[in-house]
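Exam review. A common question shows you a sequence with its structure tokens and asks you to describe the fold in words. Practice with the pair below. Do the first one on your own.
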Amino acid sequence: MFSQAQYEAVIREIETGLKTFEGQLAQVIPAANSAAGRWYVPPPVAEGFKWIAEKTVEVGKAILDWFIDLLKGAVAPIFMFIDSWRWMDIKGKANGVATDLSTQNLVVDDTDWSGKSRDAYLAAAGAQSSAAARIGSIAGSTSLNLLACAGAGLAFYIVLAGVLAKFIAALAVSIAGMGSGIFSGPGIALFLEEVGVNTTVIVTATSTLAAFLGAQVAAMITLHGDAVDPSSFPNGVWPMSNTSQYSDATVKDGDADWSLKGK
């Protein structure tokens, strides 16, 4: 399922988180230099702190750029949801046409109209009804596929928001460790440890999303095949509204012969 309000809230959360994350990265080097400059910190340890800080900023900037790239497609699920809604409207209209052109709605029981003209009219109208029904079916399937894609996008960005929150929390701990009087190498390097775990989560989520969207592409290709199916669309086009036998509007029934040609 897809909720536009929930989706927009998740994207805002990610955008806000990236600003927070970027601000944290700017604090890492100063915090490390401050820690390394304390009188009781041996030079090798001080160099270790500085190295960790440099790597933290390097990795953090790469992650920041990665998230920015992933956000470039953030608007797509919203358009998918909107298009899904519109396709469902098309389904309703097409099915309405199909119903209006059905035999039971075209035949008037108390009429004395009968013969080949009546049969040809109903046959032609039946083809129109079938074509409209096929459009309704295609529109409905297209709508559901688009809605599923939008839902997959929402799930993907929820994962990103969760991972980013962990990155921010881990980096905050590392910065606090660098700025405190009591700190440890593992505590300061916590952010780098989180990166190793959570980048795998992002890669897995991205792969899952890509596989899902690939399946949806295959489904859309199948829908295209349905659209050009000659059973409802002869030669890939909309069926003719009349038959070749009655293309000149001539009606022959028993001894009667009424021709509208030229009138």
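Now try the second one, then compare your answer with the model answer below.
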Amino acid sequence: MHTKTIRLTSVTAALAALLAASACGGRGDGSGPTVAQGECKGQQATGIAEKSVKLGGIYPLSGPASAYGDIPKGIKAYFDYVNAEKGGVNGRKIEFIVRDDGYQPPKSVEEARRLVEQEQVFALFQTLGTPTSSAVMEYANKKKVPQVFVSSGASKWGSDPVAHPWTIGWQPSYLSEGRVYGQYLKTEKPNAKVAVLYQNDDFGKDLREGFVKAIEGSGVKVVAEQTYEVTDPSIDPQMRNLANSRADVLLDITTPKFGTQALAADAKNTDWNPLHIINNVASSPTVLRPVGFGKVQDIVSAAFLKDPSDPQWADDTEMRLYREKLKKYAGGLDPQIPYHSLGWASGSAMEKALATLKCPTREGLMKAVRDLKDVRSDLLLPGVSMNTTAQDGFPIETLQLQRFKGERWNLFGQPVDTRKAFG
């Protein structure tokens, strides 16, 4: 596969040279530059200097999950804004290098190694995907390199900080999302028969598990299940099998490409009209639009971020800043594409974490991201903030249900703090 590297940076050539000099000799295995004195003595300082910090991201810019390639574009715009108008974070300008893994785990590890051992990054930020980030996690923890704010809701990012102290997630866990859907059906359709379509990996299995646990002992029953592989060209056979179940509800646990296929197949089958619940990662209008908004009315999902296409946020301070600066620093991007705003929000989260560093080291970064107290990054929904402890590696665990009406999502109900709701 052709390898893509994108340098998303506002750092000057001189500054880049300074950064390279400061990292000279580092191998990304804890034997690189360290702090010589003070409370941070002996901690890893590869990739961070007085005026700069270098981050690396891994995304599927190509392949079956390439829709996610819009996320780093939003991050780039945010970091360019921070560098140009805030002078960086605590005086350090951010260089962000993006690599393409095509959503292939072996390639993800290869690109992580390139970022750590050749590019000398301070941290891996926003590796995307469950199978791909799982492969990177083993490498990052072996090398003692932060893998921060993973772009996946798999439970493994926060479930065992002892075994994986260098990895932490960001978005709500898939387990929590599944529980929210289960609780919703127990209230709204207490005798529902549910057909489940899910991706056959940790992503799909986690969300399914959360849903199944939530409906235990209730009248809501799973009557049919089908899985698919990310390499499958089509899920039409699975959708036909699920339709034969005559279930009242379709729980659609897919990534964008397959989300579009599932919605299209559902719309085409006029003999089956289930309530269609689609998971957050496949809820973008870019997934729905190819099917036709008129054919996806009343589907349900969950959100933790403000929708840039929702008029209720037109005068919102954070949304106005996002639109203004996205236009200024990435003029060709559509501000209404949620993956752009997701990137903006995650970039804001990283800025907040870097700003709290007591030790400008890799160890200091992990300590900072495991001690977040009601920290808001831009574009989070009201009532949603980042909270972590040394034992809790899930920064965001609040979700709100939404229903698609007209040409946009409409929030309904109240935000659900899954820590409090489900323990």
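Model answer, second protein: Confidence is low (pLDDT under 50) at residues 9-28. Residues 174-303+401-422 form a domain with the Rossmann fold fold (CATH 3.40.50.2300). Full marks require stating both points clearly.
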